[in-house]
Amino acid sequence: MSKPPSTPSSRSEVRQIAPKLIELSETVLYGDVWERPGLSKRDRSLITVAALIAMYRTEQLPTHIQRALANGVTPEEIGEIITHLAFYAGWPAAMTAGRVAKKVFDERKP
After folding, report:
1. 19-73 confidence digits (pLDDT tens)
2. This prediction's pTM
3. What residue spans define the domains of the chain?
4. How far apart are CA 10 and CA 88, in angstroms?
5. Burial 7-40 (b: 16+ CB within 10 A, else e)
6. Which helix (H) or strand (E) holds 30?
């Protein structure tokens, strides 16, 4: 089973309020859906990052960008996703996603 992409502190915070949500996230979403053979983890990451950008879910975006990078998506490809979505999800969503991605990329530099 792959590790859920949220930070331990965010999971523990939510677990205090909605323990079943965290249980379902860990067992169903990341233990089953992310492990299905129909799509690669790389493809699932591309889809998830695109969906989070389109829905303006900036709080979850950094963790999923990190996961996408770990799953083989390149920073250049993330930039292409952001540019592409500017025309489908809106300019503000893309601009915000670009700032989030830059922060994630900068934190990865040695």
Report:
1. 999 999 999 999 999 999 999 999 999 999 999 999 999 999 999 999 999 999 9
2. 0.87
3. 1-36, 40-110
4. 30
5. eeeeeeeeeeeeeeebeebbeeebeeebeeeeee
6. none
Report the C-alpha gap between 3 and 70 in whole angstroms. 12
Tokens of 63: 């963790």
Q: How far apart are CA 61 and CA 51, in angstroms?
A: 9
Q: Which two tokens stand for residue 18?
A: 């909605």
Architecture of the domain delimited by 40-110: Up-down Bundle (1.20)
CB 75 within 8 A of CB 69: yes
The pLDDT value recorded for residue 1 is 43
